[in-house]
Amino acid sequence: MLSMCMAGKLSALKPMIRRSTMTDQYTFKNPVTAYEHISPPKQSQPEPGLDAKLTPKSDLGEDTYRGTGRLEGRKALVTGADSGIGAATAIAFAREGADVVLSYLPEEEEDATRIANLIEKAGRKAIKVPGDLKDSATCRELVDTAVRELGGLDILVNNAGKQVAQEDIGEITDEQFDHTQKTNVYAMFWLTKAAVPHLPAGSTIINTTSIQAYNPSPTLVDYATTKASINNFTKGLAQQLAPKGIRVNAVAPGPIWTPLQPSSGQPVEALPEFGKDTPLGRAGQPAELAPAYVFLASAESSYVVGETLNVNGGSPTP
Ligand code: NAD
Ligand code: MG
Question: Of all atoms in ligand 1, which is nearest to the CA of residue 88?
Answer without folding.
Answer: 26
